[in-house]
């Protein structure tokens, strides 16, 4: 494939110099002189497709794009949203619901394999966090601290982070029970052997909490919903299902202040210390599992409102596609999916980010340059 004349290195250098100069001019009103100087030193790269993200959606998009000879650039982030490259799966242990691994696979290992596959087919990966984007004109611009990528199209696959409550024992350090009895995904982890026929607890009061609690009744001996208020905010029908379920008990006006280890195995969760917010009285609740169901926070702040978002901050996509409100910008995975939020569904959306439209768009652009 030949490149358009206006994409040769001489013109690229000229555009790069003009681009840097425009930042310097903007510095008189928007930046300090030191910030402008830093901008002018950015490494400028060009690509047909830039992918932002490091989870199943991002790497599936990368594999399809690279095999289509789009030579994608992928930014996997460096502890973006306080999570290592690879996304939420890196915070889990055994993944037993991803096809192809009958004995299960560690979340971190699964994402390492996805990354290796992306690189093998030709994806260029940078372990840098995208700080901002400019979707006002084509080519779109994607910024990190050291680079700016000019891309014909962009796939946003930055995911969403489950909200977690901070209390003693809730973390993933040596004194915490994260992934050792505490989780933020009942569908992902609820069927694990450590939870079967054991008392479990869910924190939350919305539809997600109702769904998680109902789901867990399939595996746990009983399920406690801990809610800091005296009423749920969930829809009436979801509340009715929970309140009519004999295996579910509600602990109203209460919060968790501590998680502690099992008396026979201090490495796994054995119970919770519960505090009534009205009386201040604390009590023990013996459970083997605790699930946060207080929502997710999509990683969309860096977009700075340039894409249409819903009321919860998720990227809005056109039904049946991953097209966003800006032509040429796509969203895949949990950043646009607040219903399923599973690795396999994220991967599925990554391979369907309108490649017919994307390759068609590139063909149109190429025809303008007679290639």
TrEMBL record:
Q: Write down the chemical reaction(s) this protein catalyses.
A: [thioredoxin]-dithiol + NADP(+) = [thioredoxin]-disulfide + NADPH + H(+)
Could you list this entry's UniProt keywords, alphabetically sorted.
Answer: Disulfide bond, FAD, Flavoprotein, NADP, Oxidoreductase, Redox-active center
Q: Would I find Flavoprotein among this entry's keywords?
A: yes
- Which Pfam families has this protein been placed in? Pyr_redox_2
E.C. no: 1.8.1.9
GO biological-process terms attached to the record: removal of superoxide radicals
SUPFAM superfamilies for the chain:
FAD/NAD(P)-binding domain
List residues of the FAD/NAD(P)-binding domain: 48-350
Q: Check the record and name the InterPro entries matching this protein.
A: FAD/NAD-bd_sf (IPR036188), FAD/NAD-binding_dom (IPR023753), Ferredoxin-NADP_redctase_2 (IPR050097), Pyr_nucl-diS_OxRdtase_2_AS (IPR008255), Thioredox_Rdtase (IPR005982)
Q: Cofactor comment in the record?
A: Binds 1 FAD per subunit.
Instruction: Kindly list the cofactors needed.
Output: FAD
Spell out the GO cellular component terms annotated for this protein, sorted alphabetically and separated by semicolons.
cytoplasm
Listed GO molecular functions? thioredoxin-disulfide reductase (NADPH) activity
Family assignment? Belongs to the class-II pyridine nucleotide-disulfide oxidoreductase family.
- Spell out the subunit comment: Homodimer.
Give the protein name, as stated in the record. Answer: Thioredoxin reductase
**Which organism does this sequence originate in?**
Lupinus angustifolius
């Amino acid at each position: 494939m030949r490149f358009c004349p206006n994409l040769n290195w001489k013109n690229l250098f000229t555009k790069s110099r003009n681009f840097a100069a425009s930042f310097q001019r903007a510095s008189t009103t928007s930046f300090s002189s030191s910030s402008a100087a830093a901008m002018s030193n950015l490494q400028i790269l060009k690509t047909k497709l830039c992918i932002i993200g490091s989870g199943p959606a991002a790497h599936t998009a990368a594999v399809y794009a690279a095999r289509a000879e789009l030579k994608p650039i992928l930014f996997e982030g460096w502890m973006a949203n306080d999570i290592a490259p690879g996304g939420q799966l890196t915070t889990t242990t055994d993944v037993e619901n991803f096809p192809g691994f009958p004995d299960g696979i560690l979340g971190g290992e699964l994402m390492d394999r996805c990354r290796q596959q992306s690189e093998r087919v030709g994806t260029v990966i940078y372990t840098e966090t995208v700080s901002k984007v400019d979707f006002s004109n084509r080519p779109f611009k994607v910024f990190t601290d050291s680079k700016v990528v000019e891309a014909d199209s962009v796939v946003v696959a930055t995911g969403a982070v489950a909200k977690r409550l901070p209390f003693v024992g809730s973390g993933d350090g040596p004194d915490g029970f994260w992934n050792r009895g505490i989780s933020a995904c009942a569908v992902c982890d609820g069927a694990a052997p450590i939870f079967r026929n054991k008392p479990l607890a869910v924190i939350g009061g919305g539809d997600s909490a109702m769904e998680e609690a109902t789901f867990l009744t399939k595996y746990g001996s009983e399920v406690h919903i801990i809610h800091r208020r005296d009423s749920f905010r969930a829809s009436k029908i979801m509340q009715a299902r929970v309140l009519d379920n004999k295996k579910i008990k509600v602990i109203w006006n209460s919060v968790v202040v501590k998680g502690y280890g099992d008396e026979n195995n201090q490495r796994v969760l054995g119970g919770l210390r519960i505090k009534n917010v009205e009386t201040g009285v604390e009590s023990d609740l013996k459970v083997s599992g605790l699930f946060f169901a207080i929502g997710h926070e999509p990683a969309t702040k860096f977009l700075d409102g340039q894409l249409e978002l819903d009321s919860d901050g998720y990227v809005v996509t056109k039904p049946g596609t991953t097209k966003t409100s800006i032509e040429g910008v796509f969203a895949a995975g949990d950043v646009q999916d607040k219903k399923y939020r599973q690795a396999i569904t994220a991967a599925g959306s990554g391979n369907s980010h309108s490649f017919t439209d994307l390759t068609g768009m590139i063909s149109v652009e190429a025809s303008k340059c007679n290639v």
